[in-house]
Amino acid sequence: MKVGFIGLGIMGKPMCRNLMKKGYELIVNTHDKKTISEFENEGAVGAPSAAAVAAYGPEVIITMLPNSPNVRDVLLGKDGVLETAKPGLVVIDMSSIDPVESKAIGNELAKKGVMMLDAPVSGGEPKAIDGTLSVMVGGDKALFEKYKSLLLSMASSAVYVGELGAGNIAKLANQIVVACNIAAVSEALTFSRKAGADPELVYKAIRGGLAGSTVMDAKAPMMLDGNYKPGFRIELHIKDLTNALNAAHAISSPVPLTGQVMEMMEALKAFGHGKDDHSALACYYEMISGVRIGK
């Protein structure tokens, strides 16, 4: 199958490579020409624009972009996919964007006979690399079933959630839980350090009980090591929580914990941590408590 892939960033690169390993024929485009050349050397076809990707006639185009405006521009804007797309093309947007925008973009594509699924992912760079992402999918269910195997070339789980936009609703719910969980782990381990216990031993003691979680196991070791190399950057989590707050406010759904963690992340960004991993929420507690979790 011929597949277009637009957006080769931290997540897009390994996702694209996993598709190539599975034998898919890739046409790629991204803002960085060096990255396009890199993938051309690996066997993909490089395209100078999103419109050029669509002009190659792929069956599916996958987008993996930072936010709603980027997706709208790449799909509907100048030199975008819709300029050259043929009726019957399927767009699978794997970006994490505003669910209202997913529906609006999908409606515009549908006018030209282009079908769309919104399929945001969870798991960060490590799971993108090993192909074990979780995918949350909204759109036509028959379309989801048809391309589920394609999604599972990049993921260990692909779950149908509902109509177009539902994938991004699930992703925002995921990001709320992850953000609050990381903040809670940071708070608990900082408390442990300040109270005179070894945070590493506390982590080992509680990880097997009800407090244990995938988030804790992924992020507590990073906090203990003071390693905030980005798997998922704070500035991107701020973007997701902004979308969550906007969506929640639009339907009068109170999200007080989300708002609090959002402000903590904004403070970290102001202090130069925006490109750090979201586990750097531990640094917020370091600033307000005067102690570090790590030794």
Q: Rounded to an integer, what's the Rg over CA atoms?
A: 20 Å
Oligomer status:
single chain
Query: What is the overall silhouette?
Result: elongated
Biggest sheet, strands in spatial order? Answer: 3-2-1-4-5-6
Biggest beta sheet attributes: 6 strands, parallel
Structural class computed from helices and strand pairing: alpha/beta
- Can you count the beta strands? 9
Written overview of the protein:
This protein is of the alpha/beta class. It has helices spanning 12-21, 33-41, 50-55, 68-76, 81-84, 99-110, 124-130, 141-151, 166-195, 199-206, 214-225, 234-250, 256-270, 281-289; strands spanning 2-6, 25-29, 45-46, 60-63, 90-93, 115-118, 121-122, 133-138, 155-162. The strands form two sheets. It has a six-stranded parallel sheet, sandwiched between helices. The chain has a three-stranded mixed sheet with strand order 7-8-9. α8 links the parallel β8 (133-138) and β9. α9 packs across α13 (256-270). The longest helix is centred in the middle third of the chain and has 30 residues, at 166-195. The protein is elongated. The termini are far apart. The model has no long low-confidence stretch (mean pLDDT 96).
